[in-house]
Amino acid sequence: MNISIQDLLFRLAATAIICAIHGFVLAAAAGYAGDPGPGYEGRRSLNPFDQMDPVGAISMVVFGFGWIRPIVLDPQLMRQGRFGEGLVAACGIVSILCLAAVASFARQPLIQMQSGSLTLNLSTFLVMLAAQSIAFAAINLVPAPPFTGAHFLSVAFPHRLPNARLPRILPYAFATVLIGSGLAGGLLAPLMRTLTRAIVGG
After folding, report:
1. Where are the chain's structural domains?
2. Is the dihedral of CA 160, 166, 169, 170 positive or negative?
3. Burial (Cβ within 10 Å: 0-12, 13-18, ≥19) of residue 117
4. Where would you find the membrane-spanning parts of this chain (predicted)?
């Protein structure tokens, strides 16, 4: 796989923006719902280094799919209980879809200008940011750790998963196989096409 220096820098920048926004929104939504824990742990931050998971970030840059460092939520502190945990996770996913929409919208005036390498590069970056945002949102709907969708699984089966402690390597092994094998791209392609048509158009 040949990646130019410019593409690599664009992917790194998009990864940093996505991780920062996703983690911040999750922590802020959790605090609003009644769980201040993520805020105390420094996750209510737009610093991408506070949010990035090293393996997840590398996966985003290389494969286009990735995840942030998981955020621990305590539904017992939330006003809506387990349902609140699901709402917080949904807020995180929606925030990245909104980012994709903003990137797509911001690109429109640049298309009309069609002048200068700076304009072209910015337009190219916004296309990549929108596409990577959609891929990130799609993979994080998977209801398994280390993805944000793991919180949906906790909501659906609160008694079947009573603080289950998996060996730390298992979630990473699952994510690596899912993404590295190409299964993620194949399984999520229909969803990503639908989201792209709805958000980006075309």
Report:
1. 5-199
2. negative
3. exposed
4. 12-33, 54-72, 87-106, 118-139, 169-189
DSSP string, 75-138: GGGSTTHHHHHHHHHHHHHHHHHHHHHHHHHHHHHHHHH--SHHHHHHHHHHHHHHHHHHHHHH
| Eight-state DSSP code of residue 162 | S
Mean pLDDT, to the nearest integer, of 40-51?
A: 96
Structural tokens at position 94:
């929606």
Tell me what pLDDT residue 162 has: 45
How big is the chain by its Cα radius of gyration, in Å?
Answer: 17
Rounded to an integer, what distance in angstroms lies between the CA atom of residue 57 and that of residue 55? 5
Q: What is the Cα–Cα distance from 180 to 100, expressed in whole angstroms?
A: 24
pLDDT at 117 over 70: yes
Is residue 14 within 8 Å of 129, Cβ to Cβ? Answer: yes
